[in-house]
Structure formats: structure tokens, C-alpha cells
Hints:
Layout: H1 2-40, H2 51-71, H3 81-87, H4 91-119, H5 126-151, H6 155-173, H7 176-195, H8 201-219, H9 223-232, H10 253-263, H11 267-285, H12 298-332, H13 341-366, H14 373-394, H15 397-419
Helix pairs in contact: 1-8, 2-5, 3-8, 4-5, 5-6, 5-7, 6-7, 8-9, 10-13, 11-12, 12-13, 12-14, 12-15, 13-14, 14-15
Amino acid sequence: MYLLKNKLRLMKGTIRHTWQSLIGILFVCGVLLYQFLFSIAKIAHGTTASPQGTLYILLAVVALNLFRGFLSQTPVIRMDAASTLFTYNTKLFATILCRKQITSMILSLLGSAIIAFFLSGFIFDTVFVKMTTLITLYFGTSTYFSWIFYHAKGTGKMFALVGFGICTVLLLAASVFSIIGLAVLLFFSVLYTWKYLKLDLPKYYEQLQKIDIAEVAVSQNNYAKMYQLAEENRPAYIKGLKLSHFRSSKHTALWHKSLLELIRMQKGPITLVAVLILFGWLVHKSNMLTFLPLLDDPAITGMITVLCTATALSSLYQLLAKQVQSVCDKRKLGLSIPYSDQQIVLSYGITAIIVNGILTLGISLIYTVFSWHLLLLWFAEIIAYFAQCYALLSKRKIGRSFIVVANILLYAATYFSIISI
């Protein structure tokens, strides 16, 4: 009872300090969900979702489970840190953990029933029962496989990833055999969890401590504490690829370094680029935002699409150009780098050209546009990148003029590549 009161008190503080943001998020998500269900999925009372709408909803379920189970560092089944510390070597720990898993399954059942209610056309029939069972089993197996992935090492992690992949394929198949297959996988995942899995309790307890401290900081609106937690949890050393992993020579060292900087780039700017491109696609290719004033006019939606896409491309090449400026500034401050500014720009430019080419190809796929106009867009991105590098390194007034001309060229190329065809 004390733990429940503490959770409610923390929730009260969080809502008191963040209610404006929560209302905004709920409003936007509600409007987008409404538009998706009735404009894209074509759901109506007594009319089931279209095959395309069903696929999109199932893919959203997959993305949700992938993020919360495998990409997030937070364990899917959470206990209180104090309870874990005082009960981990007793039978009570297993009892509490079992209750948490049962609670997770009940919540999965409720969420699956809501999703199935939408897919069945707001009626209770065989489609509702089938989709509820299918999605509930998928949530359950994904939860257990993510729990295994969190605690296991080596082959255990591979087992969890393979199991999650099989579950995803069965979910997208959406047949009676999928339900049977998911039930079998759920049975074996539960059996493996309770009979063979060795919990990584130090890692689990440390993560629970961080979660408890973060919840208190958010509830008290303590920005200083939140910043301190972010700094303390910043990795002390860089994981993954390092420059020593490459067989670099004098001619390839700079290019390899540019690749590493691209891989280590922060998620925030990349997420912003993806959101801008996605928003432009929603405005131009879907009916989800037609409820907003003026967005039913093709001319206006086309200009918004160009603005979002070109801004995303512009943000990306500015980030890549900043990396060049950082290396050149270090050399000017005394770091012995045996390369000139031109060599640095050209070496980093190879990575920028490849990234822009991949992004251009992705834009052509989501807009289903395959034309030689895309080459113009690619060339415009390359010109804008080198213009930005010149402006940052030369620091002349004419450099700003180059940036303005390059941006105009980029926006024009985006329009002719996406809208005018």
C-alpha cells in the first residue's frame, strides 16, 4: 500500500508540472489517430479496417514492442528498487516478479482489445476475438523475449532476437496458424525465463535506482537533478566502432573518421530530420491532416512539403559541415593534423555525398518518384554542402551569398523532384 501511495504522489507531481505538455501531446495524438482510423484505414461502424490500414496498425505494434523491449535501456518488467534490494534472495522476490508479469499480460490484453475493437469496425465478432488473441500473444511473447534479451548474454541475446523476429513474422501473417505459433513461442519463452534464465540482478537494480531517482526529479520539476542524471549516465567511454578498428592509411584516415562521427552523431538532430520528412509526406500523400485549414489545397500542401523536405536536407548538410569545421579548428588551435583544409573538406565530402544519395533514394521511395529530376536534387544537396563548408571555413561575406544561392537551388530542386512530377 505504501508503494502505491508513493507512485500516486509522484504521478500527481508529474501531472502538476507537465499538464500543459501532456494535454498538447494527447490532443495531437488523438487527432492524428482519428484521422488515421477514418481517413486511411477506412474504419466505420460494422466495417473492418482495410488491408493497408491493418498492416499499418500491426507495424505500429511491432515498432512499439521493438522500442520498449530492445532499443530502450529500461526493463519491460519493473519493480521498486527498494523491494528488489530487500527481497532478491528470498522467495518473495519471485512472487513479486510473477505478479508483475501477470499484470503486464493483463495490460497487454486490455490494449490488444482496444486495437482489435478498432480493426473489427467497433463490433464484437470473430475478427475482434481473433485480433485480440493474436496481438495479446504477440505482446506477451515480445515482453518475455525482451526480458531475456535484457538479462542474457551471448547466445541468449541472439535467441531473444531470433524469437522476436519470428513473432513479428507471425503477427504480420495474421492467421490462425500465427495464433498457434505465438502460443507455442509464449510457452517456451516463459519456460526458459523461469527455468534457465539467470537474472543480471546488479544491472537490474542499478537501472531501477536510476528510474526511481528520475521519477522523483520529474515529479519535483528539478531540472538541476535531471541534468545531473543525464551527465552521470553519459557513457564514460565510446562503445562500438573505433578508428583503431579500421585499417586506415594516410589517404583513408579522414574518411574513416568522418564515418565514425556520422555513426556517433546524436539522435536528436537525426530524429528532427526524420520527423520533418515524415510530416512533409503526411501533408502531401495522406489525408490525415486535411482537417486543418488550407491543407485541402494542393498548392499549399505542396509548398509545405517542399519546405519540410528541404529544411530537413538543409539541417543535415549543416550538421555534416559543422564536423568539417570542428576538425579544421582543432588544426588551427595547434593539433598536428597533416592535412590541409581542402583535403579535410574533400574527405568528409565523400561521406556527405553518400549520405545525401541514400537520403535522396529514400525520399524517392516514400514519394514513389523515380525520375532524372532526383539527380538534380542530389546535385543540389552536394552544392549546398560544399557552399556551407566554404562559408564556415573562409568566414567571408561572400560565403553567406553562396549559402543563400545554394538554399534557393535546393528548394527549387526539391520542388521539381517531388511536386512538379
